[in-house]
Amino acid sequence: MRKESIVKKQMLQYITTILICVLILGGILSVVYTQHYMKEKRNELIQQGRKISIAFTNAYRTGNLSNLSYELQVLEEYMGAGILMVNADGVVVLASPGLDEMMIGQSFAFQDLVEGVKEGNIVSSERKATTIFDVPTLVVGYPLSVGKMAGIFMCRSMPEMEQSLYQMYQVGVASIFVVFLFAILFSYLTSRKMTRPIKEMNDAAKVIASGNFEHRVEITSNDEFGELAKSFNHMAESLQNNDKTRRDFIANVSHDLRSPLTSMQGFLTAMLDGTVPLEKQEKYLHIVLEETLRLSRLTEGIVDLSRAESSKIILDESDFDLNEQIRANINLLEPQLNEKNAVIKAIFADQITMVHGDIDKISRVIQNLLSNAVKFSPTGGLIEVETTKTDRKKVLVSIKDHGIGISPEDQKYIFDRFYKADRTRNQDMQGSGIGLAIVREFLQAHNEGITVKSTQGDGSTFVFSLKMSEE
Ligand code: ADP
């Protein structure tokens, strides 16, 4: 498919809009202006008529009519209009020098206008070309009330007037053209400016898609594009983190898989080739068994998580006593607690706390949180487990340790799969960073959530919620 450019589309939109506006505006203005122009011209002729009427009346009264013809000539040249004087019988008695002299003594061609002025009205009319006027003419009649006169008629050639109108229009069209050129230039520049961020983001997306997750776009504006750029960078950061987590995980998992395999290989080879005396074989077989258990725990975790993440968690829900599950999980941790000389103290809201959920999954949540608390506690540390009931038919379970704590930066990611805080990496060779991811997925499947509060060096508190059973 042919690539369509946004710049072109936007320009086309701008230009069409401007063109439509200019055409509508131009049309309205030209109609209004033409009407105004014609009205002006008509008024000028009326003024002229008034002047002649005064001059004629004065001349008639003083009996000095000799100058009249000269005055008509001057006015005719000045105004560009022919002047006729018509008597009450509708006969032309005087014509300015520019007009055909043959008209004098003839009946005036537009008797309807003569009737108008005879009634004392100022009349005006646009007339087509006739035998008297070989071009269309604007005729304005002004009444004259001396002697046996009917009125004065000023006749102005329409094409002449239109000529100056056309000149005005030409200037108008030329300026519209210039404005239009500017509009094209302006729309091109603004369209380009508008689409530049999109192009930059597109380029950045390609760079990121090719595997360079460090690439970011520059945020230059505070508008929707700025917002988009921010979201884009945020997305790039998430991708970068995911990529880092994935790499770390592969590194961790391969390390975790390789080390037990190598040691098992070593022990088994030694036993087979007889390097290990028979009486010591049992001890080594136990070590091998430990290692296989560790391997299966790791693979189980990965399988659990992938199943949970592809939202295939099927809950087997029932009502059960939460206290009992907590106690059972504390018992399971006894070897680790003894090793660290650590203590778990449980404070229950009630003798029995009945909750509703999948017993195995909730148990796993408790187990993961407790074993983390023990793992990251100092020797002789105290871990507190507490349940509280809320009036919203929920039970809150908090698991608090006084261990190394989690930095605010790490707190954002610890629930992500395969994430291990840098500082704990050496301390916790066994972990693969999936325990908390499983916790979150299992709780989410129950529509419940988990939060963490932690101060580095001071310990962490994880709190999650459960539904109280109906009874
Ligand atoms: P793992 O399965 O390896 O224990 P988790 O998902 O349970 O991984 O935990 C992820 C990371 O979160 C741990 O590697 C550790 O850095 C941090 N973390 C979890 N719980 C605690 C805690 N109680 N105290 C300090 N750090 C913790």
From TrEMBL:
Pfam families: HAMP, HATPase_c, HisKA. GO terms for molecular function: ATP binding; phosphorelay sensor kinase activity. It comes from the Bacteria. One of its GO terms (cellular component) is plasma membrane. Gene3D superfamilies: 1.10.287.130, 6.10.340.10, Histidine kinase-like ATPase, C-terminal domain (3.30.565.10). Its main location: membrane. InterPro entries: HAMP_dom, HATPase_C_sf, HATPase_dom, His_kinase_dom, HisK_dim/P_dom, HisK_dim/P_sf, HssS/ArlS-like, Sig_transdc_His_kin-like_C. This is histidine kinase. It comes from Anaerotignum propionicum DSM 1682.
